[in-house]
Amino acid sequence: MEFHDPEVIKSILTHYRSWAIVGASASQSRPSHGVMRFLDSLGYQVIPINPNGNEVLGKKCFPSLTAASSEYDIEVVDVFRKPSEVEAIALEAIAIGARAIWFQLGVVNTSAANTAKNGGLQVVMDTCPLIEIPKLGLSFDSWDKSSVQDKLRSTEEF
Fold first, then answer.
1. What does the pLDDT look like over 20-72, one tens digit per residue?
2. How many CB atoms lie within 10 A of CB 104?
3. Is pTM, for the whole model, over 0.90?
4. Angle at 133 between CA 131 and CA 138, to 5 degrees
5. Architecture, CATH, for domain 6-154
6. What's the rounded Cα separation, in Å, for the pair 81 and 119?
7. C-alpha R_g of the chain
8. Which residue ranges make up each domain of the chain?
């Protein structure tokens, strides 16, 4: 599948620690909340992006990637938005100097993915870190904040 390359997925998960979660929600029933909590528990720096939010998981919520980039070096933009809305997010990710963009499950927009790729970003589409991290050989009961990055880096194959 295009934009679902295991090597790109592994590269993003093992090399980048700062993730902006576009569409982050304080509601525990929303997928973005669960993924943000999961990444945070693994020691990734997570930055919630939502123009209607104040705080998610005790972290200041920013109205846009541009606003967040004034305080953080955002490496990965993790997108929980409708496919029709993600072209602008891809362009903003390029503009702030992100290194990768991750379009979540169901967020399929090949034009936006190509825009991001042509803008120099690594691109993953239509999957989730909750699905991909265990493929690296880690089980959900083995998460240890201090060593997860080392475990991910030492994994040679999915």
1. 999 999 999 999 999 999 999 988 999 999 999 889 999 999 999 999 999 99
2. 24
3. no
4. 120
5. 3-Layer(aba) Sandwich (3.40)
6. 20
7. 14
8. 6-154
